[in-house]
Design goal:
Elements (H helix, E strand, L loop, with lengths): L1 H4 L2 H21 L10 H4 L4 H7 L32
């Protein structure tokens, strides 16, 4: 029995089982419950809504430039067997 427990595969299975049990305990333990939020915290659904309520301007990101610079480094060869749907 001692020789069977020293096999690398058995050790790996034991470590994997303990790791899964620890992850389940941490993720679903009794201390990881939903917390009730006060009304002033739960008032806004998104960060954007909260920012607008605070007076901030929420702007979209700038679009990419039409003229993109060349990629540095050597050029890549075309795909040998392109996949077409």
């Amino acid at each position: 029995m001692d020789e069977a427990l020293r096999h690398p595969g058995v050790i790996a299975l034991i470590v994997a089982g303990l790791t899964i049990a620890a992850m389940l305990l941490v993720d679903h333990g009794p201390w990881n419950r939903a917390k009730v939020q006060p009304a002033h915290v739960a008032m806004y659904q998104t960060t954007g809504e909260a920012a607008r309520a605070a007076g901030a301007d929420v702007l979209p990101t700038d679009p990419k430039s039409v003229v993109e610079p060349d990629r540095p480094g050597p050029r890549t060869s075309p795909t040998v067997n392109p996949v077409t749907p």
